[in-house]
Amino acid sequence: MIAAYCWPQSAEPGQTIELFCHTEAHAFQIEVIRQGAENNTVLQQNNIRGTLQPIADVVAEEGCGWNPSCSLRINPTWPSGLYLIRLTTEDGASAEAFFVVRATEPGDAILVLSTSTWNAYNTWGGRSFYTGGHVVSPMRPLPPGFLTKTDPHRHRVARFKIWSREDARAFAAEGYDNWSMAAGWANWEILLLNGQGPRGTT
Questions:
Q1: By the 8 A CB rule, do 81 and 179 touch?
Q2: pTM
């Protein structure tokens, strides 16, 4: 058993992201992968100490409040984008967490991640907005399948009518900064929204 989340969910180069992990294993390893036109591993780290973290009854509403398992300083060479952390233990248990590296300069396109929607549907540790919850915290793991699926096209709900990961890769291949995040959508030539496809901002 293993579960994890990152906080904060985004940072700029030189800043630090903390990984919070709950596991029965004595140790685990991580692989940090930037997702884009190609998935590129930027960091691997082994023998991170595993810890059983407390799980309160109000996790869904107030967050986990765990102690950090490790800190990740954003390397200045890492491009802006969505980064997936894959955690594995010796017995084969696995989990995923994510963070975003924000661009320091505006790009031509921005893909807006649906993190509020993910949080609204998240049932880890309690109720979601759709199962009776009224307040939900982003400071908790996402259930398996939220970040990656082994066969994303098998289930219709996992597919976007217009926008898809293939579209993201195509934009990345053309040099667009798909995953940058910052306030002020008017700064980007193209705005990409999950399920709605690209649209101009001017």
A1: yes
A2: 0.79
Span 146-192, pLDDT tens digits: 898 777 666 555 444 444 566 666 666 766 655 443 344 444 455 55
DSSP string, 136-186: --SSSPPPTTSS--SSTTSSGGGS-SS--HHHHHHHHHTT--TT---S-GG
User: If you compute the radius of gyration of the chain from its CA atoms, what whole number of angstroms results?
Assistant: 17
* Domains assigned to the chain: 2-106+113-151 (2.60.40.1930)
Q: How many Å apart are CA 59 and CA 126, to the nearest integer?
A: 7
Rounded CA-CA distance 81/111 in Å is 9
Cβ–Cβ under 8 Å, residues 127 and 133:
yes
> How far apart (Å, rounded) are the C-alpha atoms in residues 17 and 102?
12
- Separation of alpha carbons 97 and 10, rounded Å: 12
